[in-house]
Amino acid sequence: MALPISLRDSITPPELELIASEELVEIVPLISMERTAFISGAYGPLRPPNKARIPLWMAINLKMKKKCHIVPPDWLSVADFLQERLTQETTQPEFSQFPFRFTEIAKLLLDTAPDDIPNSDKIRSLLKDIREARQAKSRDGLQKIDHSELSLPNLCSMEINEIRPFFVRAMGVLTQLTRDPVADSRQFGV
Q: How far is residue 163 from each of residues 47, 143, 171, measured CA to CA in Å?
């Protein structure tokens, strides 16, 4: 599948998911394992039924082998939290605060471990609604683009990546439009 032109200049969503897979999550191991060293660090020991914090990539690997249960982050496990955030997104002009890589982490966990997430279908639906509300806000923010400042606090990594190609082109055009024509004529000897 070919990527849209707007995403060819940016990091792809799977690449962002790979970066997010370094985030630490809690698991309940179903196997015992001694402390193990990897390039990114040493993790463990794993002793059932004690929880352990390991990188998401390792948790997904163990989950796929049925060797652990993933404990979803608080922001993903409570539908009331997400419902409250959806209300904030649709009623307030600013973005509500989420973890920086929440979209990537949520997708990885919902794809890999939906059985470990209570009400995973409702959570998936709420996240989709939140994402659409946030996309509408970022489009509105880009319509009000100002050459001197653009303030969109609380954007997550996926949202920044989506608007980056447009933003770079828009700022280039704004820079050309706001140049001093007298200074340009002196620079080029006109």
A: 44, 12, 12
DSSP reduced 3-state for 89: helix
What is the value of pTM for the model shown? 0.80
AA letter at 91? T
- Specify the CATH number for the domain of residue 115: 3.40.5.50
What is the amino acid identity at position 162? E
Q: Give the DSSP per-residue string, 38-66.
A: ETTEEE--B-TTS-EEEEHHHHHHHHHTT
- Residue 182 in any domain: the answer is no
**Which runs of E-coded beta strand occur in the chain?**
24-29, 36-38, 41-43, 52-55, 68-71
117 compared with 138, residue with greater pLDDT: 117
